[in-house]
Amino acid sequence: MKELQIPQGTLLLEPDFIADNEANNLFQSLQQQLDWQQAEIRMFGRMVRIPRLQCFQGDPGINYRYSGLTLQTEPWHPLIQTLKQRVESFAEHTFNTVLINYYRDGKDSMGWHSDDEPELGINPVIASLNLGQARRFLLRHRFDKTIPQRELLLNSGSLLIMAGQLQHYWHHSVPKTNRLLEGRINLTFRHTFTTDTQME
Ligand SMILES: O=C(O)CCC(=O)C(=O)O
Ligand SMILES: [Fe+2]
Predict the structure, then answer these.
(1) PROSITE patterns, from UniProt (predicted)?
(2) With CB atoms 3.0 to 4.6 Å apart as the test, which of 74, 96, 126, 187 could cross-link to 59 if both were Cys?
(3) 3-state secondary structure 6-73
(4) Which residues hold their Cβ within 5 A of ligand 2, which is an ion?
């Protein structure tokens, strides 16, 4: 595991967490078997469809708030349950939810944001697993515009861990491109606190 040096945040990358052929098989199975939804969010006073498909799984009874929406967790898909266990033992951290994003082609994307919802706790550990098409992942400092933007290429099978103060100080995004790209599935494993569980 490689620690990427970034001020005010922790970023770890394991480029070959899952072997290529297994990652491709997982991509195919999940692409076919998950119940993909295209959420609508309110933007500038009107409802727009987000440019990607999503699915949210986790332990029972956990809600997830996202751009004004409240999503209910679906039960763990068996393949994802197994992946969760592998990621947990590698990251030495437990997760109770996963947000799964399916970028169908280069036009699908995720805008600048940080994962700083209060239910994720103060300094969340988020483990981000990539399957399929490699995509650019950008990071930009939220406050100090003199700090250069960072760019990673997230290959199929790679695992990126975001931790420490990263979500407080950095935004991240997956930009769209005009290049013809294949599909990519990204899974962000998270620990979501509920009113019944303690914040760290
Ligand atoms: O697709 C990615 O690499 C990023 C996903 C992400 O930022 C998120 O789910 O919050
Ligand atoms: Fe994110």
Answers:
(1) FE2OG_OXY
(2) 96
(3) CCCCEEEEECCCCCHHHHHHHHHHHHHHCCCECCEEEECCEEEECCCEEEEEECCCCEEEECCEEEEC
(4) 115
130 found inside a domain: yes
Q: Residues 167, 84: contact at Cβ < 8 Å?
A: no
What is the CA(173)–ligand 1 centre distance, in A?
A: 7
Ligand nearest to the CA of 52: 1
Of 87-96, 112-121, 183-192, which gets the smallest average pLDDT?
A: 112-121
64-87 residue pLDDT tens: 776 667 778 999 999 999 999 999
Structural domain total, the chain: 1
Ligand that lies nearest to the alpha carbon of residue 138, given by its number in the listed order: 1
Query: Residues lining ligand 1, CB < 6 A?
Result: 99, 101, 110, 115, 128, 137, 154, 172, 174, 186, 188
What ipTM does this complex have?
0.99
